[in-house]
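Why do we bother with holo predictions? Because pocket geometry can differ from the apo form. Keep that in mind while you read this record for adenosine-5'-diphosphate.
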Amino acid sequence: MKIGVIGGGQLGRMLALAGTPLGMNFAFLDPAPDACAQALGEHIRADYGDLDHLRQLADEVDLVTFEFESVPAETVAFLSQFVPVYPSAEALRIARDRWFEKSLFKDLGIPTPDFADIQSQADLDAAVASIGLPAVMKTRTLGYDGKGQKVLRKAADVTGAFAELGSVPCILEGFVPFSGEVSLIAVRARDGETRFYPLVHNTHVNGVLNLSIASTQHPLQKLAEDYVGRVLKALDYVGVLAFEFFEVDGGLKANEIAPRVHNSGHWTIEGAECSQFENHLRAVAGLPLGSTRKIGESAMLNFIGEVPAVEKVVAIDDCHLHHYGKAFKAGRKVGHATLRSVDRATLDRQITAVESLIDQA
Ligand SMILES: Nc1ncnc2c1ncn2[C@@H]1O[C@H](COP(=O)(O)OP(=O)(O)O)[C@@H](O)[C@H]1O
Ligand SMILES: [Mg+2]
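The structure, written out:
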């Protein structure tokens, strides 16, 4: 079976690493000449709106999936004429736009921060008057890793903020004084069967994910599964979906969804019986889903900008290096390490060991 992937970054690369043993082949459509997934499959180097090359991709593959959600809606609609596309055009339409996704959460009774649609500075002024400060203003589309957003703390921050974010449609959210951030990675098959990985506790640095720790019997697991299950069903979703929550007052508030494999699920490659990457492929290919059970304690640390010395990373006990083969660049995700151990105390020591390598790098 040949899988077409829109986007050829590290997520595409890890999908191919998981699918190759299942007998799958891959083609990646990505305009970047150095797209790092090309080591694992065919690289169709073209823009996402290039209909000739989209048609070529559709003709070559059995189905198409995505490694990022900011694909233009027309691209998805065009491909869907010729080849099955998972997740669906509708799921992508909702997940790529913060207003649509938060509105869906609200319709489904899932708690969210207060939020408002912002189309002008006047809308922003009115929203700040009702939601209050501090608040977070985010572009409705195309934001990632904390980009395309601004925290508004005082009246002076509000002045001109609409222009500062590019005078594009935005959303204003009340600032959530969260005690922690968690994500739930779920997978739903074509027949509706749904499985959930354990909740993951996430720490961000400068808006970028730094550390994910898979939890053991988290008290909010069932609540999170209930919320995520509602979204999966409403979208008749097929594939892996990640749902980010704020932990607040012993409950959860929805932040955002990603209609794809997710950085906070990378630990599943070594830390779960079947990884998020393999389960995404199983789901879209119509295969039975794999077990989402965690193997021991597990965590993931991102390498941002550069990867520490390989010989030092792999010298740490049960530490698994993933080097994405990308050029080093400040702020760029260039790799990660998964840690696995039998108990939490050992895991914490391993995390400290990797962190000290990052500090030295
Ligand atoms: N309403 C909010 N209140 C408090 N912190 C927030 C809020 N929205 C976002 N953040 C912080 O900013 C990070 C990035 O925001 P997010 O909406 O997840 O965008 P991205 O698409 O960049 O991941 C979050 O993980 C969280 O730490
Ligand atoms: Mg996020």
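The mean pLDDT is 97.
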